[in-house]
Amino acid sequence: MCGIAGIMIKEPVSPELETLSAMTMLLRHRGPDDAAIWRDAHIGLGFRRLAIVDPEGGRQPLASEDGRFICVFNGEIYNYRPLRAELEGRGHRFCTDSDGEVIVHLYEERGADCVQELEGMFAFVIWDRAEQRLFGARDRFGIKPLYYAAGREQLSFASEIKSLTGSGVVAPAVRPASLLAYLTFQYVPDPDTMFEGVRKLPSGHIFTARPGEPPCVERYWQPLLAPEPAYRGEACARDICQALEHAVASHLTGDAEIGCLLSSGIDSTAIAAAMRRHGPVRTYSVGFAGPADETGPAARTAALLGTTHTSEVISREAYFAALPHVVAQLDEPLADPSAVALYEVTRLAARDVKVVLSGEGADELFGGYRIYREPQALAPLAALPGPLRRLLHAAAQRLPAGLYGRGYVLRGTTPLEARFVGNAKIFSEEMKAQLLEEAWRAPDGYVSPQALAARLYDRNAHLDPAARMQDIDLNLWLPGDILMKADKMSMAHALELRVPYLSSVLYEVARRLPPQERVGGGTTKTALRRALAGLVPEEVRMRPKLGFPVPLRRWLAELPPGELLGRIEAGRIGGYIRLPQVERLLREHRDGDADHARKLWTVLCFAMWHGACVHKTAAPCSAAPATLSRVVSSI
Q1: Are 97 and 157 members of one domain?
Q2: If I label 213, which of 3, 199, 469, 525 is the partner at 20 to 30 A Cα–Cα?
């Protein structure tokens, strides 16, 4: 795991060392073990290293035998040993035992198609010195991030946005269309960011660029479920078990101790149980005081599995004390309350280990969210003739807002494509119009959430409703929230977080599951739960999903009067957000008239981000020391 950065300029000179040094040092938390800069005509590459595979020899940048191809790489390649054996059999000579070196040699042979061979999580760039061409890639699901800013004179890129803004390469400014998207999704969907002029390379994409030309971005892979009605029972259970064992074993590569993040749920428990078959395991969990505290059940699970367990209960005071650090580390606003919990549990783990395995991706692949069962509940209304559904919908809209059953009728008479745009839907378009100042309500380049989801719904119309919802989340929610949060929170502590559920072997099994094996039998993750009988404790196997249940509603209501509004006002967002509307939401929340916790949280996270990263009135997002350990002019 590492951090990468670089600049490609139009003129045939080396980019400024001072700028490259600043960009690279702003990523030091991602790689405290080594740092380097490589420069040549048109190009400069920076690298920070967290040494896990071949700690003595795996320094970067990496080069081909003849020095033509130069690579900086962030991530892990889990199938690098068989790839290396094949490449050596075809005459390639390796200088290190690192996983990243296979990328350079694969690119020599296959060019852009090299990504099809890679099993792992990655973001990398390769400079072709002969062709004066830059190539970059991001892994299939978007586990590792890569950002870029393209101008007429230069193309800059980095593992984190703070490398671009903190070094002065990009002036921080809010992108209006991204603010509207964020207020619905609680994150900014790919390929945009909250910063004007900064974009993400989307998951499953590559780019090529030459000096003075804009990058050409292309998709090379996209997830899509392919349910098979006959794929049920013992056959799929056996395949799931075998795939899980293979995925976990492949994710245990490296020369550092590997721990596991353990909640009270089935996903992480299955990983920890599979890891125990390979030796002792350290597990880590956090929770929040109250009835939904997961630390007790997680500790009992750890005892049953025989792991060395560490846990911590997060108080309200500690939660809000950590929030400024979380907001700054995320680079852009991401209003997922569980980000603080992930920040704290990875901080806990980083005291002992350099790597952890975690359960991200299981819910999206195996049908773990309760919302995926909604189509079953709404089926009686969905089966009604269209004219009758529209009549019922119009009648329900005229009923009092709090009337029992009104929401059921409204959702059941609304097409799936209109009611579901992903796992989070914070502000509706109507609510955003009330919240935002007039100048920000219809910005150029804005794509509504429904229009964004429609691109995916158009290609998944042949799937069952639950699978269509999973497809939306696999393409939007998973890379935009879950994986971005996992990378940023773990790397804040120089901890590599690996996600075995997103290995290709598990994906190929999960995509074949029919609806009854995902959300059948009155539960979620039906096939996964059945498959894990005998591997995980029975009390865990059938336990409903919790997922870092933050008592946000209660905590926001309990904050001293004026504290929440004061934090929001300190972010200087009055030019975007109508603060009287925020005061109304807060008043209704405190009085118990409505639960506005997620709306208030979304505004708060934007305000804190704006204060720290744009207006610079709060603690800065980053600060860079002046020196690097290695500066290389050529290889």
Answers
A1: yes
A2: 3
**Residue in the block written with tokens 């539960």:** 523
Residues 137, 37 within the same domain: yes
* Residue 359 among known ligand-binding residues: yes
Please report, for residues 28, 373, 519, 545, the alpha-carbon distance to residue 464 in angstroms, rounded to integers and kept in the order given: 46, 12, 11, 23
* CATH number of 533's domain: 3.40.50.620
3-state helix, strand, coil in the chain (%, to 5): 45, 15, 40
How far is it, in rounded angstroms, from Cα 278 to Cα 252? 9
d(CA 601, CA 174): 19
Residue 186 near residue 45, CB atoms below 8 Å: no
pLDDT in tens, 539-561: 888 777 666 678 999 999 888 87
Would residue 621 show up in a list of annotated catalytic residues for this protein? no
**Spatial contact of 295 and 283, defined as CB atoms under 8 Å apart:** no
261 is in an annotated binding site: yes
Same domain, yes or no: 201 and 271: no
Three-state secondary-structure class, residue 474: helix
- The share of the chain scoring above pLDDT 70, in percent, equals 95
Residue 565: which domain range? 552-614
Catalytic residue among 2, 114, 236, 241: 2
- How many other C-beta atoms lie within 10 A of the C-beta of residue 328? 20
CB-side exposure of 454: number of CA atoms within 13 Å?
A: 7
